[in-house]
Automatic annotation (TrEMBL):
<dbReference type="InterPro" id="IPR016174">
    <property type="entry name" value="Di-haem_cyt_TM"/>
</dbReference>
<dbReference type="GO" id="GO:0022904">
    <property type="term" value="P:respiratory electron transport chain"/>
</dbReference>
<feature type="transmembrane region" description="Helical">
    <location>
        <begin position="17"/>
        <end position="36"/>
    </location>
</feature>
<protein>
    <submittedName>
        <fullName>Cytochrome b</fullName>
    </submittedName>
</protein>
<dbReference type="InterPro" id="IPR011577">
    <property type="entry name" value="Cyt_b561_bac/Ni-Hgenase"/>
</dbReference>
<feature type="transmembrane region" description="Helical">
    <location>
        <begin position="101"/>
        <end position="122"/>
    </location>
</feature>
<dbReference type="GO" id="GO:0005886">
    <property type="term" value="C:plasma membrane"/>
</dbReference>
<dbReference type="GO" id="GO:0020037">
    <property type="term" value="F:heme binding"/>
</dbReference>
<keyword id="KW-0812">Transmembrane</keyword>
<keyword id="KW-0472">Membrane</keyword>
<feature type="transmembrane region" description="Helical">
    <location>
        <begin position="152"/>
        <end position="173"/>
    </location>
</feature>
<dbReference type="GO" id="GO:0009055">
    <property type="term" value="F:electron transfer activity"/>
</dbReference>
<feature type="transmembrane region" description="Helical">
    <location>
        <begin position="42"/>
        <end position="63"/>
    </location>
</feature>
<keyword id="KW-1133">Transmembrane helix</keyword>
<keyword id="KW-1003">Cell membrane</keyword>
<dbReference type="Pfam" id="PF01292">
    <property type="entry name" value="Ni_hydr_CYTB"/>
</dbReference>
<dbReference type="InterPro" id="IPR051542">
    <property type="entry name" value="Hydrogenase_cytochrome"/>
</dbReference>
Length: 224
């Protein structure tokens, strides 16, 4: 059969907005601690926004479009190993959505982000600033959790570094421009690909989900 390429929409707008907002907030959150001495308030606001994004993304993983759903990229050991064996082949990736290895990287990143957010709520910085739930636990426990908050960040920055390196590996070695796909939503894929399982849901649903996520975080901050 004659195989040509076509542009196929693989990422919905909410997933793309989630991703680039996550990148921005992650940078602000990191910069507010590493680059400035007195930017704890900014760190808190970036953290609350990250928590909102994270809750949104977890819910979207169940009610969003097909490629955003966990069931779409949560692959078993067999499929992951089979894909991993093809990783070094310099040919474009023809997965609609995340490939099995990338899917695991996403799950690990989201899990580490969740751990980072949860520990942040109970942390303090040895000065006057502490997370909104820190006063529910002892100072010693809060100090321990603050240490864990820092350690998780080191894991997180390592996996994010690997994630960015992987994206560039795909770009220059495998000739797959995943970055453009995460910006425009469209991936160039063979026209022989079966796209019958691909579907999207309305952006209005995403707004509702985001409102639920924001309300949870607002309630947490206001009533803590
Ligand atoms: C400028 C730096 C970054 C670039 C160029 C980038 C690029 C990308 C691309 C192309 C994808 C889609 C991968 C695929 O096709 O399977 C993706 C997904 C993802 N990235 Fe990044 N990324 C960056 C930074 C980050 C950071 C800092 C984080 C976390 C703090 C992050 C977390 C994620 C997550 C969670 C996904 C999955 C998206 C979803 O399914 O909702 N990325 N990224």
């Amino acid at each position: 059969m004659n195989t040509t390429n076509q542009k196929i929409k693989v990422w919905d707008l909410p997933t793309r907005l989630f991703h680039w907002s996550l990148v921005l907030c992650f940078a602000v959150s990191w910069g507010s601690v590493e680059l400035f001495d007195d930017a704890m308030q900014i760190h808190f606001y970036a953290g609350y926004t990250l928590l909102t994004l994270l809750i949104f993304r977890v819910l979207w993983g169940f009610v969003g479009g097909s490629t955003a759903r966990f069931s779409h990229f949560w692959s078993g050991v067999h499929a992951t190993k089979a894909y991993a064996r093809t990783l070094l082949k310099p040919r474009p990736n023809d997965n609609i959505g995340h490939n099995p290895v990338g899917g695991w990287a996403v799950i690990i990143m989201l899990t580490l982000l969740a751990a980072q957010m949860i520990t942040g709520l109970f942390s303090n910085n040895d000065l006057l600033d502490s997370g909104p739930l820190a006063h529910y636990i002892s100072g010693d426990l809060s100090d321990t959790i603050s240490g864990i908050h820092g350690t998780i960040f080191n894991f997180l920055i390592t996996i994010v570094g690997l994630h960015i390196a992987a994206v560039f590996f795909y770009r220059f070695y495998k000739h797959s421009n995943l970055i453009i796909a995460m910006i425009t939503g469209y991936k160039t894929l063979p026209n022989t690909l079966n796209t019958s399982g691909l579907y999207f849901v309305s952006n209005f649903r995403a707004i509702l989900v985001l409102a639920i996520a924001a309300a949870c975080v607002a309630a947490l901050v206001i009533y803590s």
